[in-house]
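Methods: holo model generation. Sequences were used as deposited, without trimming of termini or removal of tags, and paired with ligand SMILES retrieved from the corresponding compound records. Each pair was processed once, and we did not select among multiple samples. The sequence and zinc ion SMILES for this entry were:
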Amino acid sequence: MERLKKMVRYSYDNVPMYRKRMDEAGVSPDCIRNLEDYTKVPFTVKDDLRDHYPYGILAVPIEQVTRIHASSGTTGKPTVVSYTRTDIHTWTRLMARTFAAGGINSSDIMQIALGYGLFTGGLGFHYGAELLGCTVLPTATGNTKRQLMMAKDMGCTVLSATPSYAAFIAEAAVKEGYDPHKDFKFRIGMFGAEPWSDEARLRIEAALGLRAHDVYGMSELYGPGVAVECVHQDGLHIWSDEFLVEVIDTDTGEVLPEGSHGELVFTMLTREAMPLLRYRTRDLATVKYEECQCGRYHPRIMRVKGRSDDMLIIGGVNVFPSQVETVLMKMEGVGDQYQIVVDRDILDKLHLKVEVDERLYNSPDYDPAAFTKLLGEELTAIMTIRVRIELMEPGSLPRTEGKAKRVIDLRKE
Ligand SMILES: [Zn+2]
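and the model returned the structure below.
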């Protein structure tokens, strides 16, 4: 509460947008005495960042800004985030804590196969791993053959990547003639920047012989390192000394009681350069407040189920791509890559392209018609719309080194 009150006052005094909004809502920083009072403060949304591009939400003069990151805007201007020296330090400390919670220590050698640059992934992981005392190998993305060679030669013990790139590295390793369990020393994977299912996790863990942790964050909230799974992998601990979390009803904006499923809203409690009050993430999840087996009391996000803006409405039915992934990754014979294509002629149509894994594809028993039928049956259990399934040859769908493009919605074009 002390930090929160201070932050509301700081934002009101230094950012015209917050002063105007709070004045309009009839809230003054002095009326915030408890968390209930705080719910009167208006939300901040992603469009606010775009509308105030590039420096509109800055609470400090530009001379005090040490670094700027930006998220790739698919349309129009990117979302820009600024950091003071103290902000970078805070973020770095949170990343070091994130790794420590995952069981990483100073004797680990971390290969960081994430994009370095405007994307917060590479540099965020990098600084945190160095602070923790790890040996850092900043391979960034790309040149997968060299990644594999270095992983083996340097004896890397931690792999940091997006989950889809981790799956790709595992696949490439086998193609290049490595035995990941014998040739690599990976013991922990730190994966984030895109949603992935528990089933995808099990596959990556089995393929690379490591324990895979989900790292949650977004550039608006410093970057990665907002929350992470501890060694018990039972929800992601939110670093609640820096981030106040609320769960709201997406439609009404009302704060929901503990344990409800809803949209995650974060307030940054100490950020200097660009304060964010009640920032709506569009991520849907449940937050658990009980003590974890690891002994931490930090509230836990019970795995992000999907983003409310990733949800597809197909023929009037809500479809989360993560549900489709869960079904696919559970099935033997399905490869690691798939693509959902949504199109419309008179009615909406869902077309699912699924790679068959190498083993099934080359097996004499492989019967595409029967396999398609089986897949169709599994999918109708979660969806009430008809799906056209197309089985693909192993390796035929495009691979990515960053976030995978799983959904192609042709209705938007
Ligand atoms: Zn824990």
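Residues 230, 232, 237, 292, 294, 296 surround zinc ion (CB under 6 Å).
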